[in-house]
Design a protein that fits this description.
This is RNA polymerase sigma factor. Belongs to the sigma-70 factor family. ECF subfamily. Keywords: DNA-binding, Sigma factor, Transcription, Transcription regulation. By secondary structure, this protein is mainly alpha-helical. The protein has helices spanning about 5-20, 20-45, 45-65, 75-105, 125-130, 130-145, 150-155, 160-175. Helix 2 (about 20-45) packs antiparallel against helix 3, helix 2 crosses helix 4 and helix 6 crosses helix 8 (about 160-175).
Length: about 180
């Protein structure tokens, strides 16, 4: 079974970028930024925050590219960095929300966890309601096209954990889409 030409090309660009080739790095950025943007937007639910995450991801890539031991692991490594930057952004957003609540001396408004009876949810709303770990797995699997092993590497968990998260997410999405109460 041969490897995909796109993966080989990415490995080639990584090797060149590690030697200091700016055109190779620029090509990697051009090839992967749209995918990273889509992934981060799906995880965060905010296109503007996703753009910031993509920029931070590339800054980390430039700083750490020399430490990437196997260019064939570039995809998982790249999405692992993006995943950590998304988690940072989510934590930051939580801190900002808490600070606003304290400053305003009001409790945070509760967002209903389920739709009103008879109301159907769209897929984006259903995905947004998933726990962070499940949402990241769904975004990497369906949005970024990574395999279970690559997702495991990106998230720093075992492949079985990825499978469990995807299974739980699919079950929750089915319930949401059917108007269930989970």
């Amino acid at each position: 079974m041969g490897r995909e030409p796109d993966r080989i090309f990415d490995e080639y660009l990584v090797v060149l970028a590690r030697t200091g080739s700016r055109p190779a790095l620029t090509r990697l950025v051009m090839r992967w930024s749209p995918r990273l943007q889509g992934y981060a937007a799906r995880v965060l639910g905010d296109a503007e925050a996703a753009r910031d995450v993509v920029q931070e991801t590339w800054a980390a890539v430039v700083a750490g590219l020399g430490r990437l031991e196997d260019p064939a692991r570039f995809r998982a490594w790249l999405f692992g960095i993006a995943t950590r930057r998304c988690a940072d952004a989510q934590r930051s957003a939580v801190r900002v929300r808490r600070l606003r609540a304290v400053v305003a001396s009001e409790a945070l408004l509760a967002v209903p966890a389920v739709a009103a009876p008879g109301e159907r949810l769209d897929l984006a709303a259903a995905i947004a309601r998933l726990p962070d770990d499940q949402r990241a797995a769904v975004a990497l699997f369906y949005g970024a096209g990574l395999g279970v092993g690559e997702i495991a590497g990106a998230l720093g968990v075992a492949p079985g954990t990825v499978k469990s998260r995807l299974f739980a997410a699919r079950r929750a999405l089915a319930e949401f889409m059917e108007g269930g109460s989970s």
